[in-house]
Amino acid sequence: MGDLLLLNAHQLDIPYYLYLSDEFPIWFTTGRKTEDMPETIDAYLKGHRSIGRLWISKTEMENLRQRIVQNYPDVIMPYFTATRSRHSEIPADRRPRYERTFQYYGKDGLETFNEIKYEYGVLPTNLKFQKANEFKFRVTTRGVFTIKNGGLGEVLRVIEDSIDRLREVKQAIDTSGFKRLRNEFAGGQTIPESRPWAVQLDSPITEEDVELIESEELEEWEFNLGKIDVSFDQEVPQFKAELIDDRSLGKTILRSHNDSIRIYPREHTGIDQSVRVFEFINDQLDPESTAIQVN
Predict the structure, then answer these.
(1) Whole-number Å distance between alpha carbons of 295 and 276
(2) Domains of the chain in sequence order
(3) Per-residue pLDDT for 198 more than 60?
(4) Which of 176, 225, 258, 275 is deepest in the core (most CB within 10 A)?
(5) What's the CA gap between 141 and 83, in Å, rounded?
(6) How many CB atoms lie within 10 A of CB 20?
């Protein structure tokens, strides 16, 4: 476990904390997200390119749920939301090609989720866990962890695997970069140079994968598709896609390469944007995908 620093605790103010993990700091507050968060801090957290949310794919959310149940057999899950996308490959007993969203309140949430998962092939997007006299917290795919009761250290131990997973993703992202090189032969104009990182897939890109990149599923991860060029001339489809961030309007270029997707950052690409690209691919294209350095 890392160190815990108190950043602000003036009288009547909301305290902010910084948890220093091995790789990167985690910022959090005991204030309510909407009522107590100052607009200046909210704007800074959302706008700084070096700050990102602890995004979690739906597949990883399900892994997190299973780990918590295994570690705490008497835990209850009194609230959850779960969804299924039209292109999901998760087995479903009932009408698998339908999009679905479930929201459930009840002390039998764990049992109900297992039934719904089997019948309709859904994955969780929002989970609330409660263990008597120990903790009560909620986690969402958007990286919001809401602690209702219990020590922070216990909650951090519960989500430690997810933090480690994101650390590995960040290490791959950190090998990429963007810069402008001055061209002496073009009147001093600059030429953009982007060094990519990549997402390794279990198998080569398919036509269905390309359709997913063109689908509305991108909006769940706060992206719009700027443009996409696709070629089906070869045995494996080739594509180049431009993703535009909803908030910053920053661009990221995706390009297929054998059984991987290379991600080229642009001038205003931030860490949050890059993590979302990975989670989108992991969530929609290949749950076994991994972030890697491009040599």
Answers:
(1) 22
(2) 3-47 (no CATH), 58-158 (no CATH), 169-293 (3.60.90)
(3) yes
(4) 275
(5) 12
(6) 13
